[in-house]
Every structure is written in C-alpha cells, then in structure tokens.
Specification:
- By secondary structure, the protein is an alpha+beta fold.
- Helices cover 26% and strands 26% of the residues.
- The chain has ten helices and 15 strands.
- A hairpin with a 2-residue loop joins strand 4 (172-179) and strand 5.
- Helix 2 (18-32) packs antiparallel against helix 3 (42-56) and helix 4 crosses helix 5 (70-77).
- Bound molecules: zinc ion (2 copies).
- One zinc ion (ZN) binds at residues 164, 166-167, 171, 190, 192-193, 197.
C-alpha cells in the first residue's frame, strides 16, 4: 500500500498543515498549468497534482488515504465528493478556478483570495506584406491598472486598510433565517466590507478605494512572419489589474490581414493572376512577375493555355509551423483583344486563312448568333 505518493506530488511532508498543502498546491498548479507549461508530461503532472490535492485538502479523505492509501480514499468516500471539479475549461481561466476550488461545494468563494484581472482583446490590422514578413507594432489602449497613488490598497497614502469589524477579515458572515423547516444557517458575503475582509477608513482619492485606475498602456507586439487573419497573440500580464494582489490578466491581440491589390494568399501559398495576350500565349515569352520578394523573370512556353498554373518555388510566405517557405502560384489568363484596328484585323484574317479556318463571317448572322442574341436579352 502506498500512502505517501500524494504528499510527494505536492512536495510536502506527511504532517503538512492544510495551509502548507494549499500553498504547495497553488505552486505546483501554476508550474504545470497546461496554459503555462508546454513541456511534454506537464499536463499529466498537472492532473496528478489535482488528484493529490483533491484528497489531501479534505480532512476525511486525507485520513482515509493515510490509513489505506489511494484505494481507501477513493473507495471510501467516492471521488468528487468534495465538489471538486477539475480544470477542464479551456483558456487561462485556470487561475480563478484554482482559487475558487479551495472553497468548492457551492459555498461563498473566499473574497480575499488573489484573483487575476480580466483579459482584454485588441484587434490589429496588418498589411499583406506585414503578415508575410512579420512586424513589430506599437499599440496603445486603456486598461484598469493598479492605482499608482495607493499601490492598489485603496487606502489613502499614509493609512492602511484595517480588518473588517464584522467578519474579522473572512469576508463572509453567517446569517440565520427562520424557515418552515426550522432555522437555516447560511454563509453570505459580508455587508460591511463587501467581501474584501478589509475596511478602508480613508479611501485613496485617486481610485476612491477601488485600488484600480484607468490608464493608457503602450505595448510593443512582435508579429511573427506568416500569420493569417483570425490568429491571436497572447501577451501575458498585459490585460487588466488583478484583485487582492492577484496578477494582471492577459491581452489577446487578434490579427486581421488586409487584402493586397496584386496578390491573394492561403497559408504559405501566394496567388497571382497573370494576363497575357493571345500572341504571347501562342509564341511564348519571358515576363517579369511581381512577388512579395521582388520581381522574378518567368518564361511562358509557346502554346500556353488559359488556366495554366506556374509555380515559383519559395516565393510565397513563410510556413508558421514546420518552417520553410511557401510558393507563389501564377495563373495565366489569355486576354482576347476588344478593339482591333484594320491592320490587326487583316493580320488575324490572314492568320485564319493560313490556319485553314473557313467561313469567318463576323457580320453575317447565322442561326447560332441569333440564339446567342436572344440569350443576352434575357
Ligand atoms: Zn467584512
Ligand atoms: Zn488608489
């Protein structure tokens, strides 16, 4: 029977106090949180830590574990009996979850616990070229910051918040309510300190006791080469100020790539449409093709058809994952001339004759032309 492993997972001794277990758990949860730690195996360690804490934080389960090991703890009381629900929610809501879970079971959440500030979103436009090559952008936005006058305490400089006289700092008070079934005892948020556990006798004049103030914040964002519309960059700690000494939230920079007049792009492939004349297509030619990396000389073989795609290797955008460089695709469109002078008409008739084409009668309407006219009228 093993009844020490859970202690080892949290890195505490078998006689650790609830406080020490809680502290160790916070530390390990942060260390292995899947949003923070991208190492292989971190997620499993994170789950192991949750499992250990679920047992050791509950005095009944802990006692069973000490006596019988893991089977005893789970078999004896059923897992999840303490109202502990794991951390499967995506994103970095984890911080709040971690703290709120200490008071699981539907009770009042400890209002004194440090809480991370809110996350913010910032939408940024990038030119086609900036998205291909990457860029460094300065952005500026308003956010709730820690009050500079009181350093976040909410109390006037020179004074400090005092422990709430009603709840003695817990932020929670107990109320008894008479019901038909008898007296009900409930825990609710303290009505004097509104859960902070502290009373501010003289509020800070800058923030009026909130501990936060709106401030303009400037950040430099590094955009990697090869990004696309809809992708996000997370800047840790660039969101809003936390509560009770909790960390700042994060900033999510959401990218929007503006269209280009010349190019289109899908992933690392850039698309370009090349218009050529019927003569170029028939006889072949060498043309300059614009790419984001500069002009490239490309030869068109004689007899090229509309819709033919040529690939310019390595002239696309960088591949975000896996590295390397994409290609540029050049799609050929043969443009039919719309205005011809007499000399050009003669040349084309001569061409048709030389090709053995018969019955070239552009003025005289045959049956098919009439059908076509009718269709155009619809
Ligand atoms: Zn209070
Ligand atoms: Zn202040």
């Amino acid at each position: 029977m093993n009844n020490t492993e859970f202690y080892e997972r949290l890195g505490v001794s078998k006689d650790a106090s609830q406080d020490e277990i809680k502290k160790a758990y916070r530390k390990m949860s942060k260390k292995y949180h899947p949003d923070i730690n991208k190492e292989a195996g971190a997620e499993q360690k994170y789950k192991d830590v949750q499992e250990a804490y679920e047992t050791l934080s509950d005095s009944q389960k802990r006692a069973a574990y000490d006596q019988y090991g893991a089977t005893g703890a789970n078999g004896g009381f059923g897992s999840g009996a303490g109202g502990f629900n794991g951390f499967d929610g995506g994103g970095f809501g984890g911080f709040e979850d971690i703290f709120s879970s200490f008071f699981g079971g539907g009770g009042v959440r400890n209002p004194n616990a440090p809480r991370q500030g809110d996350d913010l979103q910032y939408r940024i436009n990038l030119s086609f070229e900036e998205a291909v090559f990457g860029a460094e952008k300065e952005i500026s936005y308003n956010r709730e910051a820690t009050c500079g006058t009181c350093a976040g305490t909410g109390a006037k400089p020179g004074t400090s918040p005092v422990v709430c006289r009603k709840c003695h700092g817990s932020g929670i008070m107990t109320v008894d309510t008479q019901t038909p079934l008898g007296m009900m005892r409930r825990q609710v948020t303290c009505d004097i300190c509104h859960g902070s556990g502290k009373e501010i006798k003289e509020p800070c004049q800058t923030c009026h006791g909130t501990g936060h103030e709106k401030k303009v914040h400037n950040v430099s964002v590094k955009i990697p080469a090869g990004v696309e519309t809809g992708q996000q960059i997370r800047l840790q700690g660039q969101g809003e100020a936390g509560f009770n000494g909790g960390p700042y939230g994060d900033l999510f920079v959401i990218l929007n790539v503006l269209p280009s007049k010349k190019f289109e792009r899908n992933g690392s492939t850039i698309y370009y449409r090349l218009d050529i004349s019927f003569v170029q297509a028939a006889l072949g030619d060498t043309v300059d093709i614009p790419t984001v990396h500069g002009d490239v000389e490309m030869s068109i073989p004689a007899g090229t058809q509309t819709g033919k795609v040529f690939r310019l290797k390595g002239k696309g955008a960088p591949k975000l994952r896996g590295g390397g460089q994409g290609d540029q695709h050049v799609t050929v469109t043969i443009v039919t001339p719309t205005k011809l002078n007499d000399a050009q008409k003669e040349a084309l008739k001569a061409f048709a004759e030389a090709s053995g084409e018969k019955s070239l009668h552009p003025k005289k309407k045959g049956f098919f032309d009439k059908v076509k006219d009718a269709l155009e009228d619809i």
